[in-house]
Amino acid sequence: MRDSHRVEAERVLVRAVGEEVRRAGGGVDAEVLLARGREALDGLAGVAGEEYAAYVAALDEAAAGEQSLGEVFRRTSSGTALLVTAVAAAAAAGADMAFGVDAGTAVSAGIVVGAAGAVTAAVRVAAVHVPAANRRAGAAGRPGGPEQLRLKWLTALEVRGIRPFLEQERAVAVAGAGAPGSGSAVGAVGAGPGRGAVPPQLRGVDRSAEARRRSMLEQSFGQLPDADALFTGRRAELARIAQWVRTARASTETRPVVVVLHGEPGVGRTALALRAAHALRDQFRGACVVDLRGGAPAAGEAPLSTREALLHLLNRLGAPREQLLFREGASAEQQVRRLGELYHQHLQGLPVTVVLDEAVDPEQVRALVPERSESLVLVTAREPLELPADLGAWVY
Q1: How far is C-alpha 317 from the geometric centre of its chain's CA atoms?
Q2: Angle at CA 120, nearest 5°, toward 117 and 122?
Q3: 23-47, pLDDT tens digit by residue?
Q4: 352: closest CA among 254, 271, 299, 280?
Q5: Which residue from 262, 309, 313 is spatially nearest to 288, judged by alpha carbons?
Q6: What is the 8-class DSSP label of residue 80?
Q7: What is the Cα 322 distance to its own chain's centre?
Q8: Which residue numbers in the chain have pLDDT < 70?
Q9: Other CB atoms within 10 Å distance of the CB of residue 178
Q10: Per-residue exposure over 258-290, b if at least 16 CB sit within 10 Å of its own CB, e if not
Q11: Is residue 259 within 8 Å of residue 238, measured between CB atoms?
Q12: Residue 9: CB atoms within 10 Å
């Protein structure tokens, strides 16, 4: 990895470690975790090796194609253009002398011809070079350009390398919590005698829950409905969604991307959302579709409640089942509030794709947009939805 690129990779690592510290409520030694991450960075970068190679190749190609205007002049002017100009100048001077013009006047005329030829050559070189340079500059930010490939590499590094590394560190810390000399970064702060120790039976539950979560997330993309095989066009829309995700990942703020796709039934809103979820699966750890039944519920079907939607999302995305149980007597409002807290906590540091199909209630959508998460939320609706202005997300 080039030195400048390592600096960028370390920035991603620092941000991810910061999110892990916030998620743990301060029970993580950030310096220890960051040091381990830096030690492992070369190995973690290997999972994004293909994306990195494409990025470096695009940089090298762009560098090879870039020349200053002076370099172009030096290369071009020393060739045919100057030769033709010099011949023309000499010919003009000779012709004037042949017709009896004195030598001084003839030489002056030749100089004028030569100067005019040189200016013409310069204008031609500039006319070719400047538009070409502008085209290269414009192409740099387009799909396949160096900037797009840089964002794709950093996203792959975070999603497939850094995030799984932090999850593994968390699991090791949970398994070794309370064990003498475990040396884990998690729980290293304030975990004196009697503090931070987890009873063996709870440690077993935590390991089981972590394994279940990994399994559920791995299976989640397979549970997505297939994208419409007849789906055509919409490449521009898919490219825009991918670009919004990459832009959000490059930001210093951790926010989800929310894309509202609205239109009449049959225009392909849901097909586009599903196609995007499948196309971007390498950017996310899991995915889930929730039919909110807000458009035109079938006979006898009511719109899906926020409580049911949260339960569906938490189950599909691998939340610990024991956390989804409630005491007897808990009101519906209390259950929704508790489920919402669990949902936001579960998806911190866990980027997933959520498709909210047939939404009608902006407040319900707000409750289902994970806070402080790098997730993608694709909302389909018949009418444009005015989402709350204070929603902590990049909304498109």
Answers
A1: 20
A2: 110
A3: 776 667 888 888 888 888 888 888 8
A4: 280
A5: 313
A6: I
A7: 33
A8: 25-27, 65-144, 173-209, 228-233, 296-300, 326-329
A9: 15
A10: bbbbeeeeeebbbbbbbbbbeebeebbbbbbbb
A11: no
A12: 24
What is the distance between the alpha carbons of residues 152 and 249, in angstroms, rounded to a whole number?
9
CB 186 within 8 A of CB 25: no
Q: Which amino acid is at 331?
A: S
Quick check: helix, strand or coil at residue 6? helix
Residue in the block written with tokens 């409520």: 25
Question: Within 13 Å and on the Cβ side, how many CA atoms surround 26?
Answer: 2
Contact status, residue 185 vs residue 28, Cβ threshold 8 Å = yes
User: 18 with 374: CB under 8 angstroms?
Assistant: no
Q: Can you tell me the distance from the alpha carbon of 394 to that of 147, in angstroms, rounded to the nearest whole number? A: 20
Q: Residue 163 is inside which H or E element, if any?
A: helix 163-176
Domain ranges of the chain: 1-198, 211-396
Residue 186 is classified by DSSP as B
327-337 pLDDT, tens per residue?
A: 666 788 888 99
> Which amino acid type is present at position 218?
E
The answer to whether the pTM exceeds 0.90 is no
Q: Report the sign of the C-alpha dihedral through residues 177, 179, 180, 181, in that order.
A: negative
With CA atoms as reference, report the closest residue to 130 among 64, 82, 80, 72: 72
Q: Which residues of 179-217 are buried (b: 16+ CB within 10 A; e: fewer)?
A: eeeeebbbbbeebeeeebebeeeebeebeebbeebbebb
Measured between alpha carbons, how far is 256 from 354 in angstroms, rounded to an integer? 10
Half-sphere exposure of residue 293: CA atoms within 13 angstroms, side-chain side: 12
Instruction: Let me know: does 211 contact 320? Beta carbons within 8 Å.
Output: no
- Report the C-alpha gap between 148 and 237 in whole angstroms: 16
**Count of CB atoms within 10 A of residue 50's CB?**
12
Tokens representing residue 330 in the block: 């808990």
From the list 310, 373, 304, the residue with the least C-alpha distance to 337 is 310
List own/partner pairs for 136-144 with CB under 8 A and 24 or more apart: 136/62, 136/65, 136/66, 140/62, 143/239, 143/242, 143/243, 144/58
Strands annotated E in the chain: 257-262, 286-291, 352-357, 376-381, 394-395
Q: For 211-396, give the CATH class.
A: alpha beta
